[in-house]
Design goal:
This protein is an alpha+beta fold. The protein has a single domain (4-159), classed as NADH Oxidase, CATH 3.40.109. Helices cover 32% and strands 15% of the residues. It is built from 5 helices and 4 strands, in the order ααβαβαβαβ. A 4-stranded antiparallel beta sheet has the order 1-2-4-3, sandwiched between helices. Bound molecules: flavin mononucleotide. Flavin mononucleotide (FMN) is lined by residues 12-13, 15, 70, 126-130, 165.
């Protein structure tokens, strides 16, 4: 069992997936981890689409493959789409708060929880920012006006070795008062 910091360090974008199916229950657990994430006024501004149908998965992969980028996504065995739902905050506070501003942070937290749960289950993930939203919406029957908060490719990593992280040094980011 990894402690949390080890888990956070082990999570990495997987760009080489093994030819091995992903269990339905594990995908549900990933969404469950996201569901438990905190959100402003517990507004939970999210919903999820889990793509596991072997006929649909390659079609989703294609929507993320533009300009020769994301070719490796063809190896993903599932996708999880995180959708932004309207955040309903406490009526008393609504006049002071921009609910969708908080929603972005809430959704980021949910997305990371999802990826960390996948890591703890031995799965690899890659969050994809590059995809054809219109094609993806049509494919998954998602209303075009719905905002996407994340498309995550999921599969077992072909090479589970953890790469060294490229990050700004801690000392350059932190200030103690
Ligand atoms: C919002 C977002 C969009 C991303 N889009 C892509 C993408 O389209 N293709 C890709 O290969 N990686 C994508 N990444 C992965 C980042 O490149 C990666 O998280 C970053 O380089 C840090 O590496 P690590 O995840 O291995 O720690 C995305 C990550 C985020 C958070």
């Amino acid at each position: 069992m990894k402690d949390f910091l080890e888990l956070a360090a082990a999570r990495q974008s997987c760009r080489n997936f093994a030819d091995r199916p992903v269990e339905h229950d594990k995908l549900v657990k990933c969404v469950e981890a996201a569901r438990l994430a905190p959100s402003a006024c517990n507004s939970q501004p999210w919903s999820f689409v889990v793509v596991e149908d072997p006929l649909v998965v390659p079609e989703v992969a294609k929507t993320s493959q533009v300009l020769g980028i994301n070719e490796y996504v063809s190896g993903a065995r599932a996708f999880i789409v995180l959708l932004e739902e309207h955040a309903v905050l406490m009526p008393r506070l609504r006049a002071f708060l921009d609910s969708q501003y908080f929603a972005k942070g809430d959704l980021g937290g949910a997305l990371l929880s999802l990826c960390l749960e996948a890591e703890s289950l031995g799965l690899g993930t890659c969050i994809l920012g590059l995809y054809d939203r219109e094609k993806l919406s049509a494919l998954l029957n998602i209303p075009l006006e719905t905002r996407f908060a994340g498309l995550v490719a999921v599969g077992y990593p072909a090479d589970p070795k953890t790469r060294e992280k490229t990050r700004k040094p801690l000392e350059s980011l932190i200030r103690f008062v």
